[in-house]
Amino acid sequence: QVQLVESGGGLVQAGGSLRLSCAASRRTSSMHAMGWFRQAPGKEREFVGAITWSGGTTNYGDSVKGRFTISKDNAKNTVNLQMNSLKPEDTAVYFCAAARASAEYSGGYYPSEYNYWGQGTQVTVSS
């Protein structure tokens, strides 16, 4: 079992930046990939981005491309999400997730590709 804990959420003005972190309870090198999703009230969970542990391949959702960047720190078992040029529509609870097996992974775009989830951290962007 892997436990994931997100941190770094908060309130920021539009145009500002936040950096989210996701810490895993054990070596994330045993995982194939890590991803970030977000969910706003009344909306479905939306793919934000993902990164593979071995090659560092990243994918991003269309709404965040060019503004958000995912990075990993193997030594700290941590994945980070740098969010720049934030917009009010980025307001949501952000979740990190871990994908255990490469056979089930096809880019990390869908929640079903992941086996473990964090509890989420709130990001609020004011206009």
Give the topology.
Layout: E1 4-7, E2 10-13, E3 18-24, E4 33-39, E5 46-52, E6 58-60, E7 68-73, E8 78-83, E9 92-99, E10 116-117, E11 121-126
Parallel strand pairs: 2-11
Antiparallel strand pairs: 1-3, 3-8, 4-5, 4-9, 5-6, 7-8, 9-10, 9-11
Written account of the structure:
By secondary structure, the protein is mainly β. It contains no helices and eleven strands. Strands 2, 4, 5, 6, 9, 10 and 11 form a seven-stranded mixed beta sheet that branches. β4 and β5 form a beta hairpin. It is globular. The model has no long low-confidence stretch (mean pLDDT 93).
Supply the key terms.
127 residues; mainly beta; globular; 0% helix; 7-stranded mixed β-sheet; 4-stranded antiparallel β-sheet
Strand tally is 11
Could you tell me the strand content as a percent range? over 45%
- Provide the helix percentage: under 10%
Shape: globular
Which H/E pattern describes the elements? Answer: EEEEEEEEEEE
Q: What's the mean pLDDT score?
A: 93
Outline the low-pLDDT stretches: none
Number of helices, counting only DSSP H or I runs of 4 residues or more: 0
Class derived from helix and strand content: mainly beta
What gap, in angstroms, lies between the N and C termini? Answer: 40 Å
Rg result: 13 Å
Largest sheet: 7 strands, mixed
